[in-house]
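Sharing a chain and its predicted structure for anyone who wants a worked example. Both blocks are below, sequence first, tokens second.
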Amino acid sequence: MTKIIYLGRHLMLRSSYVKKIMECGVGGITRTIRLGIVKPKFREVFIHSGGKVIAKAEIVRTIYKKVSDLTDEDAKLDGFSSRRELIRELEKIYGKLRPNTPVTILELKILEYLDLSDEDVNAKLSPVEIARLALYYNVPLSEEEKKILKQLTEVGSLRKLAIRLYGTIEKRWIIRKIVRKALKLLQELQSQSSKLSNPVGEQYNTSEKALVHNTDRKM
């Protein structure tokens, strides 16, 4: 049985795709192809690359196919010259693909390019989303801390998780501490990435002080 992958508010792209996003322009349509059956939970998503938020986009269409059903047209719409080149690139990312392997094509409309301040990022990122980003980028946390962050993404609330783990909301500070640590590690990742060329400037800085006021916010 094929596993369904649920997509939250944050879509991760490799740095090699940033140029395509930037050339698309506000209002332009672009695509990204993902392995498996991806089910978006939200219409609007934030596009991330290299630890930075580079754009906000609307998912205008979701298409499900098998690898064998991909066409030259699909490849060209995704920025490749041919189906063969597209398959070769997908296999670099995911490994050898079978003809019946499902893929999801996400069609995106660029709504805006982002140059976010500390306050802007904190207004958009909840503790749950910080947890998801930390797990996605595999920041160096302990296995126990990762386990707690994973449970936070599943439960969706600091309060509910504190009750589940400790029997009281009074100990939610323990989870807050892990979220703050994850945020700090994401900041360090952004700092390292900023040494590379960045066409849209500094976009993924945030402050722990601002986070404290948001750590009980639900998605």
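Comments welcome. The chain has two domains: 4-113, 118-212.
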